[in-house]
Amino acid sequence: MNTRSAWTAPVEGFHKSRRRLPHWQQAGSLYFVTFRTAGLRLSDVARDIVLSACLNSHGRTIDLHAVVVMPDHVHLILQPLIVAKGTSGSAPDAPVYDLGRIAHSIKSFSAHEINRRLGRKGKVWQSERWDRIVRDEKEYREKLEYMLNNPVKNGLVADPYAYPWSAFPEPPLPGGAAVSAA
To answer: Of 7, 115, 168, 177, which has the highest C-beta tally within 10 A?
Structure first.
């Protein structure tokens, strides 16, 4: 007799992991991802480095829909790309790049570059990230609006499209114009 419920049955392309927070990855899903600094306030140069690291991942391991680099945290909306046959880096039981490895790559590269360029040593990022599968268009729009308005809400700019550490490679909302990093 099979005692597995629908909640514990394996799903093709689905992976669950846990550190302090639970992380679910389903092939083909969009994610809203946030990671925070380890108490560091990112300078303009540091935010340039982080934004560049995020944009560099676009088309390689992720389809980047939006990124906003704040002084103490980063928000992204992304979709992991399908891993080409013979390429390492896929999520267990899934044909897409692993979300944990994607976040680690962005954080690791940017931390090393920030420390090198600013002549400092030490931790830049908290080890954990927060991620959520974006379930529908309504939630997608809510997350984009939240990201667009985060710099305004924090008093960094009056016009969300004037914030230099945000990028929306695709139009942020249907009918809108794409915003690029300044």
So the answer is: 168
Output the six-digit token pair for 88.
């390492």
Tokens of 14: 């689905």
Looking up tokens 């880096």, which residue turns up? 89
How far is the CA of 9 from the CAs of 2, 19, 139, in angstroms?
10, 21, 27
pTM: 0.78
> What's the CA gap between 176 and 47, in Å, rounded?
25
Per the structure, the complete domain to which residue 152 belongs is given by: 18-167
Q: What is the pLDDT of residues 120-153, one digit of tens each?
A: 999 999 988 989 889 888 999 999 999 999 999 9
The answer to whether the beta carbons of residues 171 and 142 sit under 8 Å apart is: no
CB-based contacts of 1: which residues, under 8 Å, 6+ apart?
Answer: none
Looking at the domain assignment, is residue 7 inside a domain? no
Model confidence pLDDT, tens digit, residues 57-93: 999 999 999 999 999 999 999 999 988 755 555 445 5
Question: For the chain, what is the largest distance between any 2 Cα atoms, rounded to a whole number of angstroms?
Answer: 62
Confirm whether 173 is domain-assigned: no
